[in-house]
Design goal:
By secondary structure, the protein is mostly helical. The protein has helices at residues 2-20, 26-33, 39-60, 73-90, 94-102, 106-133, 142-145, 150-173, 181-197, 211-220, 226-255, 266-272, 276-297, 301-310, 314-334. It has one domain. It has 15 helices and no strands.
């Protein structure tokens, strides 16, 4: 029970941070796809840069360990492209879906349903598509590339982390907004993820997308397979984590009297019109694509890009690059002004 409460608390803190900086908002994420709002990318960069430095310190002190995702080339590259495409269409990430549901976003509910479908189909198709995901180059990171030399790694992370933070602020200079919420959110996310990494807490990174096939497989009784056995523990953890994030967002929305059931947001209406049917269909498709791509790659925005980036993992940086390519290309193609 104590572990569950801790996970719920971490999830609640995650939800509050994301909600505070509006990183869960459809307009913000779709705006990133159109390159008219860089809140998402600069927050991610700051979290990675600052988080990598913090994490290297606690690992050096023996308080945490690495949890690097393997670089499965096909899965990471193709999964990144597919994930980015789904993120652009849906306007949410696996983690932000739960937070937006807490605020009353109905398109996020549809996205979750689509995500469950994507997770289930991935479970069923994995035995047949597994060969296309490789080759598996192993758990490559800056630490392993430097021959596991702690001092050299420590110095390198400080330099690279500082460069990434500088890039985040450089991106911010091009934004028209003067809000500094992204700085607070990025810093707090780095601190929170570092705490979650601690051996004394949960000894794992923050993640979200594994919960979708986990829940879908349990509901559909598709549990008699090796993939479910693999994702059962992390999937359960992430389900509890996201539930905490959703409840925290709900409480804040109710207290601030901002809870409102809403299906279509202004950026979608400006680009695709106000048809509810169209939004429902595309939200489902986007959620399906989002989670299918995440499972191909073995992670998502929080579990792969941020958590992996903080560990200087090659697979996570490659995933982040191809996710962003998929996001921007889809944003260019998919979003056209409604006539």
């Amino acid at each position: 029970m104590g572990t569950i409460i801790m996970i719920l608390l971490f999830g609640a803190l995650f939800g509050l941070i994301i909600q505070y900086a509006h990183l869960n908002k459809y307009n913000v994420i779709s705006g990133q796809a159109e390159l008219i709002d860089n809140t998402v990318i600069k927050t991610i960069l700051l979290t990675i840069g600052f988080g990598a430095i913090l994490l290297s310190i606690i690992i050096a002190l023996g308080f945490a360990s690495f949890h690097v995702k393997p670089f499965v080339v096909g899965g990471v590259v193709l999964g990144g492209l597919i994930f980015g495409s789904g993120m652009a269409i849906l306007g949410y990430c696996p983690g932000t879906l739960a937070i937006s549901i807490g605020e009353g976003s109905l398109d996020a509910v549809i996205g979750v349903i689509g995500g469950f479908a994507g997770g289930l189909i991935y479970t069923l198709l994995l035995p047949y598509i597994g060969g296309f995901l490789g080759p598996n180059l192993g758990k490559i990171s800056l630490f392993s590339a430097l021959g596991s030399h702690p001092i050299l790694y420590f110095i390198s992370v400080f330099i690279i982390g500082a460069i990434i933070i500088y890039i985040a602020f450089a991106v911010n200079k091009k934004d028209s907004t003067s809000s500094n919420k992204w700085i607070i959110a990025g810093s707090l996310l780095a601190i929170l993820n570092t705490i979650v990494f601690l051996t004394a807490t949960t000894n794992r990174p923050i993640g979200a997308s594994t919960s979708y096939p986990y829940v879908a497989d349990v509901i559909s009784h598709a549990t008699n397979n090796s993939y479910f056995e693999k994702i059962q523990t992390p999937g359960n953890w992430e389900m509890i984590f996201l539930f905490g994030a959703m409840i925290a967002a709900l409480i804040v929305a109710l207290v601030k009297k901002e809870f409102k059931f809403k299906l279509i947001y202004s950026n979608w209406e400006a680009q695709k019109g106000n048809s509810k049917t169209k939004r429902i269909i595309w939200a489902f498709i986007g959620g399906f694509i989002l989670i299918f791509g995440a499972r191909m790659a073995g992670g998502c925005t929080s579990g792969h890009i941020i958590s992996g980036g903080m560990q200087m993992a090659v697979s996570s940086f490659v995933f982040g690059i191809f996710m962003f390519i998929g996001l921007i290309i889809t944003g260019r193609i998919f979003f056209k002004k409604a006539k």
